[in-house]
Amino acid sequence: MTSSASEPIHDDSYAALSRDPLVSLVLALPLLVFYQGGVVVLLLSGVHVINGADVLTRFVLPHWGLKGLVVLDLSILALLLAAIIRLERRGARFRLGLFVPLLIESAVYAAALGAVLTAVLERLPFAAAAGLPEGNAAALVLSIGAGIHEELVFRLALLGGLGFVLVDFLGMGERSGTVLAMALSSLLFAGAHHLGALGEPFALSTFVFRFLAGMLFCAIYKLRSFAVAAWTHALYDVYVLVL
Predict the structure, then answer these.
(1) What is the C-alpha to C-alpha distance for residues 172 and 163, in angstroms, rounded to an integer?
(2) CB-based contact 94:14 (threshold 8 Å)
(3) Please, what are the averages of pLDDT over each run of 10 residues along the chain (243 residues)?
(4) Ramachandran quadrant class, 93 (left: phi over 0; alpha: psi -120 to 50; beta: rest)
(5) How far apart are CA 120 and CA 47, in angstroms?
(6) Would you say 20 and 9 are in contact if contact means Cβ atoms under 8 Å apart?
(7) Which of 228, 29, 233, 221 is nearest to 132 (CA)?
(8) E strands, the chain, where?
(9) 3-state helix, strand, coil in the chain (%, to 5)
């Protein structure tokens, strides 16, 4: 069971801290800082690239321009510092060393994710799914953006919201409600990549690929934490990009 963001922290091991909601937020925020900073740098060089799930930048940029985006980025940094201070007050000594086991754990999951999805898709009667755009700085920023923003939208918000509605509001059993919430959020995750003017043409292979990936990200989110899911997603996308 995870602790709430206001309870004192008594166990400062990585396994326990990484399950704490506030610690998980702090561990995931560097992804957001890297992505937002990358978007600004690319904009200054004339390249416009925004992750499809990034509703913040899509709202700020048209209304307040690049200056507004810089203010947003500084606000994210302030949030990171405030979260660390809050952790200190709860008795948790946040340390940079936590990122070492986080990166190792997430890298292992990312590699396993690729192996599992490849093995499953090879047994299906259609071609395997495509990866990310050809390797460049914009694709790297998009990879990191997918890790943080898609996990925020489809796992933290959507999976959490669907789970609440199905289990707490409609009265489904916790196990069946959680599995259904995972499936529904993964279907929406897969389908979202084919929507809008910039959406990909529908292909069964890519849809099934992303649905399966979504289910695995949901499992990591539920069994481990938001931070582990976000870093796994980002590292997997970077892994696909590099290869």
Answers:
(1) 9
(2) no
(3) 53 80 86 90 86 80 84 84 76 75 96 84 59 66 91 94 95 95 96 78 87 95 95 91 72
(4) beta
(5) 36
(6) yes
(7) 233
(8) none
(9) 75, 0, 25
